Amino acid sequence: MRYAMVIDTKKCVGCSDCVVACQTENNVPIGYCRDWITERVEGAYPNLELELRSERCNHCENAPCVRCCPTGASHIIDGGIVLVTPDECIGCGACIESCPYDARYQHPEGYVDKCTFCHHRLEKGQLPACVSVCPTKCMYFGDLDNPNSEVSQLLKERKHKTLAPEAGTKPQVYYLI
Amino acid sequence: MGTSRRKFIKISALGFGGVAVAASSMESLGINSYLEGLALENSLEKLRQTATYCEVCFWKCAGWVHSDSKGTIHKIIGNDIDPHCNGRLCPRGTGGVGMYSDNDRLKKPLVRKVVNGEETFVETSWDEALTLIATKMKGIKEKYGAESMGLLKHGSPGSHFEHLFKAYGSDSIAEPAYAQCRGPREAGFALTFGSWVGSPEPTDIRDTKCLVLIGSHIGENMHNTQVQEMSDAIDNGATIIAVDPRLSTAASKSQHWLAIKPSTDIALLLAWMNVIINEGLYDKDYVEKYTLGFEELKDHVQQYTPEWAYGVTTIKPEEIRKTARIMAAAAPSTIIHPGRHVTWYGDDTQRARAMAILNGLLGSWGRRGGFYFKEKISIPKFPHPPYPTPKWGWKEIGEKYPFAEMGITNELIKASLPSADNVHPIKAWLVAGTNLNNSIPNKKLLEEAIDALEFMVVVDTMPMEITGYADVVLPECTYLERYDGIRSATNREPSIALRMPAVEPRFNSKPAWWIAKQLGEKLGLHDYFKYEDYKEVIAWQLEQMGTSLEEMEKIGVKKFPRTSGPMYLQEGQDYEFYTSSGKIEFYSEDLESQGFDPMPKYTKHPEPAPGYYRLNYGRSPMHTFSRTVNNPNLNDLKSENDLWVNPRVARILDLKKGQYVWLENQDGVQSSFPIRVRVTERIRWDSVYMVHGFGHNNKKLGRAHGKGASDTQLISQVAIDPIMGGTGMRGNFVKILKENPFKTVEV
Prior knowledge:
The structure holds two protein chains of two kinds. Chain A is of the alpha+beta class. Chain A is built from six helices and ten strands. Chain A has a single domain (3-176), classed as Alpha-Beta Plaits (2-Layer Sandwich). The longest helix of chain A has 9 residues, at 17-25. Chain A is globular. Chain B is of the alpha/beta class. Chain B contains 24 helices and 27 strands. In chain B, helix 9 links the parallel strand 9 (239-243) and strand 10 (256-258). The longest helix of chain B has 18 residues, at 126-143. Chains A and B meet through helix 1, strand 2, strand 3, strand 6 and helix 4 of A and helix 2, strand 3, helix 8, helix 9 and helix 23 of B.
């Protein structure tokens, strides 16, 4: 089992529904978020390329946040999901510094928080909140170990990229381009 | 865009308090994260699911409100079977909970009183406030006639007051949704096809092969199923042609972005017709069978060659020809999208006509992948005596505009100005669910009209600017706290949706139906309000429709079979359109008979003077007009607007990214608040752009006050559409001030 998210930048309109759905699903306090929208513009008027994408923790296979965590609060569970155990977190912020994606934040309660791939929903057979709400259906979620899964098929058929591959973190959020 | 993940703004009211206790019990379930446990606990505690349809915008998507036994709303999720959302709400619907939890909400009825020589609002009881309003309404009726009481409204609350007004004897009713928004396209399409576009639009986007957007920015306007279907169309390999002076989100998804010079769209539309007709690319059978005036149109468009249009629009002739051929090759599965907010330059009905005619040439009306024949189910009227017949109403107030099919707000406002020759004098207003200050252009006129009123009531959930002008302010509860009329809208197949309260009203707020009924009782109109609870009306209506409140509480949405025939024209089918001739009218004798051009022409519009830039405005996907800016969840996504400036302009004016500037328009009107500069290649150098709805000046809107600039404030030039009375608002030009013009006064 290797969970991955595939996001089609050709369809994303950057509406932030994924952000607010995550906030309400996971009780993320207002003023914070576990996912966000990035906009990138290239070229000069009127020859322009615009890419909109929803970003979050990449649930890296080689996760610097897990390696640098002094207490073991940051850890990887089955399926490759990177989680934080708040009770074990001392809020030192080493993981925040080590993350090339700026995906972690300090929760006002003192621990570090981030995307969990809505693992509590996965256990019930539901998709992550962001995936299930997206009006453009630009987000896909599934098991890369299964060659027939939708995510495996999409990565086989479509041109794609990951963010900051040079960091060597082996991110598991893929962008169709 | 996006939230700063470090900035602490405000902790949500959702309690974290008792969670530590719950966490240990979660460990027994094998959950190793405490927050996971919290989320799981939420789902284990069988959250109650209550049916609703959203009121954050006009799309009215049906969903389920998830709340716990303590009455806390956890989330709102779309209803899977709802044709308005297919189970996926937009960010505003998902964040609708913020409308409920906003502590800046109106809390108690307020009455304007003079205290210590100063006018101020004083909290009062519902009974006192309603008695005062009823007394004033009686007085207006006795002195001037009920017709002199005007209703300005939007959304679900409006319909309850409409009923009250009609029972009281006034049909002087208008809403900004018409003359400030979609009126021109309704008039233009009705004149051509005999049918309004309506809402949701009957555009068959999911099956289209070519979607043509004229300044319509689907994806920034978050009209849910339009956005969903545009995404489906992308998946299906449809071609998108986007005509926009700005690289909108939709333009960025397009294969052909025509970066048009603002205000010249009709020239492009006419040149497309020229190519499609002269190259014989139109649907000959369709045109022959269903349309009227093709020969006149053919002659008319000869003058509008692509070479001519190049000089007007800045779009190259080969680009015009190429895109015309693409849309013709995809026809009839081509949509020239009617747009939604289309009150731009004053000849907007004619632009809508040009779009409608182009659809007619391509044979897309009534065809798969073009426009489907929409249908809705009518909701049985709850029995009440017939309404009295007013001597005059919205039609007479707007009589200068023969093709207006709804009340014209700006005419109703003008009718409120004291004038000896005003035969339709409006003396008092009830304003429900619409912040006129941020929707009606020409602030001076609006304020003069308000000044002249004898009485004004505002019903809203939030202390919007308009409440500050009222004599009485009534706090309405949000859609999450009330029953409302059954939703029925045109679609591929008819459906209805139920809205019921998920939680008790906060503070001392009340549903609009209750307010309308109380006023009705006090005005002696009991026979029009023969129910204690609006639930009884809904239950009765649902039973008439072969369902029940109990069933609807369980399913939220119910679909009904079509009865009007197929969605598309059948091969060779005889079909009578609801126009005067029964045909699709390329040449409109209706327009001609009223002294208007029977076929659209290009008119040149004012251009910016040196140093000025055209003020363009649009939408962001996380906000609806000005009404959501203070919503804590949505404000968190976008708390202020930016001024989009082309890098060339930024270089000339030495503007830096993130710098705050003020704006001054051609009439010397200055923006009350500064706006942040966004230097971007996405906008032309002759224009600037901002998202509409920001720059609130009511301090009671704690999050929204003073954030960003208000486009509406800067729109003092209005080009009135002579056909239907719409207010063209894109002929305003601004210069950029780097120094605070209000330096000497407190801003």
